[in-house]
Structures are given as C-alpha cells and as structure tokens.
Amino acid sequence: MIATDLHRDTIRDDTMTTPPAPRRASGYGRLWRGLPAEVAYLLIAFPIALTGFVIVITLFSTGIGTLVTFFIGVILIIGALYVARGFGTLDVMFLTWAGRRPISKPEWQDARAASGFFGWLRAVLGNGHYWLYLLHTMIVDFILKVVTWTIMVVWLSLALGGLSNWFWSLFISPDEDWYVSEWLFPDASLDFRATDSLLLFALGLVFAATLPFVSRALISLHWLVARGMLGAWKSDALQRQVVTLEQSRGAAHAAEGHSLRRLERDIHDGPQQRLVRLQMDLAAAQRQLDADPEKSRALIAEAMQQSKDALEELRALSRGIAPPILLDRGLIAALESAADRSTVPTRIVDELPAGTELAQEIERNAYFVVSEALANAAKHSRATAVEVVVSLASGAESQVLLRMTVTDNGVGGAFSIVGHGIAGLQERLRGLGGTLHFSSPAGGPTVITADIPANAGVTPA
User: Fold this and answer.
1) Which percentage of the chain shows pLDDT scores above 90?
2) Which of 10, 52, 301, 322 places its Cα 20 to 30 Å from the Cα of 384?
C-alpha cells in the first residue's frame, strides 16, 4: 500500500524533487559546538580538584600519622579512599557532561564486605580501584588540572584580550603606553597605537581560531587519564560473570530441588496412594474369589479403575517433565496441547520467525515455564481467557532471548511466595540465566514475561 501511494504521488507531480538532506556541520564546526562545555569543564574542574586534593591529602596523611593507634588511622585512611572515590566519580560525570564518551564504572561490590567489620575492611583496602582513585585525586588529577587550567586561562586571555584590545586601549593614556610595534619597527613612520591594535587583534584571532583544538586536546587528555585510572577493568566483567554464574548455579540447584520435592509429593499423594489401594483391592478380591465371586468381580473392577486413574496421573506428571509431543513436534505443538488440556480457554500465538529451531533443553524449560503459568492461572486467577505469546527478543550484548508472555484476564493480585508458583519460576529462570517479570495489579490483568537466553540454541531461517 505504501509503495502504491508513493507511485501515485510520483504520477501526480513529476516535478517533485527530494528535498536536500540537512548539511552536517564540518569537523571544525563540531569543535566549536562542543567548546562551551569543554571550557566550562576545564575552568570549573580545577577548584574542584584543589578541594579534593586538600581533603584527601589531609585525611590520608593524618591517617598514616595515627596508624600507631590502628583504629583511628585505618578509619581516616578509609575515609580518604571514600572521599577520593567521590571526587573521581564526580570527575567522570563532568567529563560525560562535557561530551566525552561515558566511562564504565568499576566494580565496588565485594562478597567479603558482607562477612562483618573485618570483612568489609579487607574488601575496601584490598580493592585496587580505591587506591587508583586515591592516586588520581591526590596526585595525578591535581597536577594535570593545574597545567590544563593554566593553559586554558592563558589561551582564553590572549584570545579575548587581543580581540578586544582596540576597545579598552582607548581608555589608556598614550603617555603611559609602550607599543610593541614601536619596538619592532623603531624607524618606521607609523601610528603605533593603531598598529598595536591591529597586531593584537591578529594575535587574538589566531588564539581564538585555535581555541577549539586546544580545549579538545586538553579535555581528551583528561578523559584518557580518567579512563585508565577511574574506569572498570576487564577483570571486573569477568568477576561479575563468575558471580552471576555462581548465582545461576545456586538458583538452578534450588529450582531442581524444588521440582524434585514437588514431584515426590505429587507421586506420594497421587499414584502411590492409588497403587496401594489397588494392591489392597486385589488382595481382598483374591480372598473373596471362592466365597463370594460377585464381590470379587466388583473389587477387581474397582482395582482396574484405580489402575487407570494411576496411569492418568503418571501421564500428567510426565507431561510436567517432558511430554512426547514436545520431542516429536516441537515447542509450539506442545504448548497447543497444554492449552487444550487447560481448564481456562487458552490461545497460543506463535511469533517465532519461520524455520526457527530451538535446542531441546530450551524448549523443555520454556514448556515447563508456560505449563506452570497456566496451572497458576487455572488455580488462582479466576480468569476466563489466557493468551500465550512466544517470540524472540534481543537482550544485552547481542543476546537472543526466547520470550514467553502469558496474559490472563483474571482478578490479579498475584505475588511471589518463596518456594511456590511465581517464585519457583523465578528460581528456575535464574538458574538458566534468564529473567521473569510479572505485573498483577488488583483487578487484573496478570502478565508474566519470561526470557530464556537462547543464543546457542537458535537457528533462524
């Protein structure tokens, strides 16, 4: 339809031309556009750096001098580390405000900090980022900002002073003047006052024209130093990944243990009881076989019904693990089968790209999550309709996510209880490296969104 409309527009007016694209500012123009923020940073950062230098060096030197008391000295040193961290973080924020690329934050969290005072002490004193921030605030940044502030002030003064000399020189008495042009051209017959104004204006013009290059060079130097000393290390990302994997492994074990306990309870309360009853009925039928054949036949018929019920319950339990249809025909077919069995009318919406293939482990976990969500909706929501949408989504760092969105029109008010329902699903997904979000305001609807990382298990068409 869009193509047709465009074609008709072309037929109606052959003289239409595409408006020219807006011209982008040249490289020099972009330098001027960022100049105000850069100059503001270079001028404001020096007094801030001076303040940080005075506070941190006072705390640190006093802490070193009182280390003989241990407690006071260590507390003062830690205070210096925290103050340095604050000034370093402030500098990174100012650099970002001035138009520099954001610098990744270091990893300040440490598991040792949760083990008491001495654990926290080891976590702070053993974190290299604190000491780098201290070195940055107490020495490197202070010296650098003194140099760059001086350069910027001199450059600005020469630029503004040269360009405005013609004006303020009018208010200076000629008898007290010393002219540069008179010193350069002592024998020339010139109006030295006017010649000086022209020379200073030209000098100011040169300094003004080069001002954006100088400010960009100075602030880039600050950014490079900050990135090297105040940014995150590659090992921080690895450490976070290790912590995440440990949490995921713990969550997976907890979820698996919960599933096994629930399966054990369901078998004990269902098929096991029926099989015990079946054994008792068959024993009673055997005893009554000769004395009362009619009663024996009734007991055998009841035993057959018990065996059928036990078989159905075992099938239902096996569907919670991995139904055969999931292995034979895939996730969508298995979910449609689960929707047919649900006591609440359920619609499955397949938004997966055509030809997408998922790993069996991913399909099994996705099926379990949706089945559990449907069971919760049937038990608690009082819903009359449920919709399940299966799709692919993009996660962080080019991650592909298998997303299941389950929406019911029930009464809402669902919440997470440890060891049950939604909390169990959250544990299972955390063990898979995934996430579960749910919204269930009073009056509904309840929306559960589950994401499972699927990069290694997705083969798009």
Assistant:
1) 23
2) 322
